[in-house]
Specification:
The chain has 422 residues and is mainly alpha-helical. The chain has 19 helices and four strands. It has a domain of 113 residues. The longest helix is centred in the first third of the chain and has 30 residues.
Length: 422
């Protein structure tokens, strides 16, 4: 094995940790920014082969970043938050944005060709962690793993909530289905993947249910070469999901810090979607109220600011009195839904529409239109398109978490290359 193979594996591992374990902190260092260390590798590679240096990309991304900074600072002033600390914060994030564009495009060929390698790295790390958890919680692991509440209700070491885990697990499941011939031949990996799939289904959630249905539709519409086996596997995973959805039950949990042992109920997935969700006139669940409030903030802001309110400025629109005209029912007024998802806006569509306005909507429409092209193989579509769809429309936590910015840069750049060649 030569040095280049070791180097490639190192790069893939770094990106894997940054994408799939973005919520993890080690000694207060957030793994979501780990990939930035590769800037030193990029500089070394450019020194060895200057032809790899993309001067146009560097100039255009720098100009774009400066425009983002000016736009963001202007809107900070407009919202009355013009403070040195806030300007410094947004400047740092735009610097990260600038570096990410150049780093990801420099290494995108490796990332596109080696999706399966990144998934394998993730699954090995994840399964090892689960076994580590079992060994270190030998007395009560059975109660936690098989509780009706999700594993991530009790353990927040790698994901703070089950939805963040499913943002990663769903693209992995669908990529594996489209790539079943390769994965099923590896006996060790097939065993690990099976354990991961069981774990994912055991931690069933509304996001998992909706994500499986929507991702399947996306693949049926955009993929060109699905064979009968893939079709059967897609139908099977949807049937399993529907059966679990229909049979999911409410779950009781002890209210934390309550000495009298009172319990509250976690609604079933079915009730969250219908009874206390889209079909409810009163007594809507907190998640639904938060989602609707974020929608109201986003489109209220868009009416006032066609070009958005600036990079990472969603939170200022969320807390502003300008966009608090959503009126819930009487029984819901005391629920703290306005205090939820202040930073991430529930989905990246709400957050980024607020921050970039029509520009972001045009980007989304461009990606949707070009998703029917042959720029990506069916396997790559199964990973990249489901990855972006989930975080854009169903549940997001900002562009710097869950690899959203990294994958967005890869997809948009590849689609632009194909578009320019036409």
């Amino acid at each position: 094995m030569n040095i280049n193979i070791y180097k490639e594996q190192f790069i893939l591992t770094i990106f894997t940790l940054s994408i799939f374990f973005s919520h993890v902190k080690i000694f207060n260092f957030e793994l979501r920014f780990l990939y930035l260390l590769l800037i030193f590798f990029m500089i070394a590679d450019i020194k060895k082969n200057f032809r790899k240096f993309n001067l146009n990309l560097l100039i255009y991304s720098f100009i774009f970043s400066i425009l983002l900074l000016i736009h963001s600072i202007y809107n900070l002033l407009n919202f009355g938050f013009f403070e040195f600390e806030k300007i410094l914060n947004v400047s740092f994030k735009i610097l990260v944005f600038f570096l990410t564009i150049n780093l990801v495009i420099f290494y995108e060929d490796i990332l596109i060709k080696k999706i399966s390698s990144m998934i394998e790295i993730f699954l090995y790390i994840f399964i090892i962690y689960i076994f580590y958890f079992i060994l270190t919680n030998i007395n009560n692991f059975h109660e936690i793993l098989f509780h009706c509440l999700s594993f991530f209700f009790f353990n927040k070491d790698i994901y703070s909530e089950v939805s963040h885990f499913h943002l990663m697990s769903i693209p992995i499941i669908f990529y594996s289905i489209l790539n079943y011939e390769k994965f099923f031949k590896k006996k060790k990996f097939f065993l690990i993947y099976t354990l991961f799939l069981i774990f994912t289904l055991k931690n069933f959630s509304l996001l998992l249910f909706l994500g499986i249905i929507c991702s399947s539709i996306i693949l049926f519409l955009t993929c060109k070469n699905m064979n009968r086996n893939i079709f059967i596997l897609l139908i099977l995973i949807n049937l399993i999901s529907i059966i679990m959805f229909l049979n999911d039950k409410s779950c009781s949990k002890e209210i934390l810090n309550e000495p009298n042992g009172n319990t509250s109920m976690i609604s079933s997935v079915r009730d969250k979607l219908f009874k206390t969700g889209i079909l409810s006139k009163e007594d809507k669940n907190l998640s639904y109220l938060t989602y609707i409030n974020s929608l109201n903030v986003s489109f209220g802001s868009l009416k006032d600011n066609f070009f958005g309110i600036g990079f990472d400025n969603y939170k200022y629109a969320h807390v502003s009195d300008r966009y608090k005209n959503y009126s819930p029912g009487e029984s819901e007024k005391n629920m703290r839904f306005r205090d939820m998802n202040i930073q991430d806006g529930s989905t990246n569509f709400f957050k980024l529409t607020t921050e970039f306005g029509l520009f972001f909507i045009i980007c989304v429409l461009f990606v949707i239109k070009r998703s029917f092209s042959n720029q990506f193989s069916d396997k790559e579509k199964a990973f990249f398109f489901t990855f972006l769809f989930l975080q854009t429309f169903l549940r997001g936590s900002g562009i710097f978490f869950n690899g959203y910015l990294i994958v967005s840069i890869i997809v948009i750049n590849q689609l632009l290359i194909k578009y320019k060649k036409k």
